[in-house]
Amino acid sequence: MRLMNFQKINTNELQMIVHYIGFIIICIASFMVIPIIVSRIYNDNILYFNSFIISTIISLIIGLLLFYKFNSNNLYNLSLKGSLILVLSIWIISAFFCALPFIISGDLSFIDAYFESMSGITSTGFTMYASVPVAYSIRLWRSLLQWFGGLGIIFLLLVLLPSIVSLKRLYFAEGKTEQMTPNIRHTSVIFIKLYTFLTIIAISLYLLVGLDIFNAVCYTFSGLGTGGFVSDPNNLNDFSNPLFQIVTIIIMIMGGTNFILHYNLMKGNLRNFYKDIEIRYLFIFILLATILVMVNLYQNNMYNHDLLVIFRNALFQVVSILTSTGFQSTDINNWPALSYHVLIILMFIGGSVCSTASGIKIYNIAIILKSIWWELQSIFLPKNIIVFRKVFHDNREITVSNDSLKQIFTFISAYLLLFVISTVIVLFFCNDFKIAVAIVAGSIGNTGLGPSYINTSIPLLVKIVLLFDFLAGRIGLWPALLPLFFVIEEINEKIKEN
Q1: pLDDT tens-digit readout, 164-200
Q2: Whose CA, among 153, 171, 193, 359, lies 20 to 30 Å from 47?
Q3: CA 475, CA 352: separation in Å to the nearest integer?
Q4: Bridge partners, 393 (sequence order)
Q5: What is the pLDDT at residue 46?
Q6: Tell me, what's the pLDDT at 176?
Q7: Where are the alpha helices (DSSP H) in 350-459?
Q8: Neighbours of 81 (CB within 10 A)
Q9: Largest CA distance in the chain
Q10: How far apart are CA 367 and CA 405, in angstroms?
Q11: Burial class of residue 145 in the structure, from the number of CB atoms within 10 Å of its CB (0-12 exposed, 13-18 middle, 19+ buried)
Q12: Over the stretch 37-62, which tens digit does the pLDDT of each residue have?
């Protein structure tokens, strides 16, 4: 039996998929109007103005053609397979159209521009630019991609799709596992409103600490989207400012926290907020990692034993990595081994479920740690004592079933397997194990922080592997592995035929 029978997918489903891909491309063209305006305001080189004009026209024409050519009066319910294909296709194709300004301006080659674009919309933060771009329009576009991708491209469809279409399948196909209300469209609208509200708060905070409006917007887009692209060539000087650090830490935590918890907090449900296992473990991880890094930095005479500076840099980098943002207040490559590898571990953990952060996710790690304790209890306590496997999450007490544990273990195993395979491939071209581990962990965790190995000269195969890791880290392993399932099934069918 074929696992993913693409050849038998409903024709009407394919038509719907292409139709809605066209819609997303039109949305991308609409977003390009923003850097066009910025280009004129800040007097960018005419080359960049023209590159966005041409990119907008190309995107708009192709988007409209797909949207109307494959339009149908009859709407069909997308199957799970169709939903996964739609989500995967949207992210892959969106990255191409988002890359057009980088290509047409001549800044980057096609593959490097696509790398930059995918790194942006997956909120990873690895860049092919040798330094921060000069053009304001390009700088804003890179940050805007991270803000747009941090929320999730599919949310635009969830808000506008007709009710007959299976919204829940699309919602879960993009890696979302929880919802604020029983209605998916209503949940999506709340997500967008909440994201916009948090964006306004973040911009206001940056303006209050003296940042100009352009950089306040760019840093907000990258920080709240937990992406890590910087808009200012002097960013390290910015992040060494205590007030700027505090604001950025707050914004990164906002982006890395479950949006359902934000929603509960804004509704005044404070008790359920601090009872939630995710928020508790978020701050436990931050506290433990910060203390560990501080002690190690102090032992190694970093920052002249200045405890305040050590604390600020340790806390900033721990939050930056755990939320998969990737901002830097200092060069972590100069940190001692223990501190450096604590950050690598945090790349794997990542942020909360239903946040803009990536990684294995705090909830999954918390459940695994709890399961170890539950198993120890079942071994050492008397046999007649029942161990209750319950956690408080999503406004209720949840009983963790064996099936839930199995799903989490399977996901983590697949995540680590992808990490090992990607690292082995990268090691064929990079002889430094530390670098290979850091860039792969940063790619799958969408952190984008590590050794300065990423540049336009790295081998094509490494770029392709990292591109796949960006995508898998952002939308989840199962949609990203869809083409692999197809290839495996095709090979199996041919073997059976022979």
Answers
A1: 455 566 666 565 666 656 567 777 788 888 999 999 9
A2: 153
A3: 14
A4: 396
A5: 96
A6: 61
A7: 362-380, 402-427, 433-444
A8: 19
A9: 77
A10: 8
A11: buried
A12: 999 999 999 999 999 999 999 999 99
Closest Cα partner for 146 from 346, 326, 359? Answer: 326
**Residue 398's beta-bridge partner residues?**
391
CB-based contacts of 333: which residues, under 8 Å, 6+ apart? 340, 451, 452
Tokens of 202: 């973040």
Q: How far apart are CA 471 and CA 145, in angstroms?
A: 14
| Three-class DSSP category at 63 | helix
> Which residue from 198, 381, 392 is spatially nearest to 277, judged by alpha carbons?
392
| DSSP H helical ranges for 122-258 | 136-151, 154-160, 167-173, 184-208, 213-224, 235-239, 242-256
**Helices marked H in 323-384:** 337-349, 362-380
- In order of 155, 170, 199, the CA distances from 176 in angstroms are 11, 9, 21
- The answer to whether 295 touches 311, Cβ cutoff 8 Å, is no
Do 81 and 9 touch, CB atoms closer than 8 A?
yes
Give me 468's structure tokens: 């796949």
Q: Which two tokens stand for residue 9?
A: 């997918």
3-state secondary structure 224-291: HCCCCCCCCCCHHHHHCCHHHHHHHHHHHHHHHCCHHHHHHHHCCCHHHHHHCHHHHHHHHHHHHHHH
The larger pLDDT score, comparing residue 260 to residue 295, is at 295
Residue 236: per-residue pLDDT: 55
Structure tokens, 497 = 């035929």
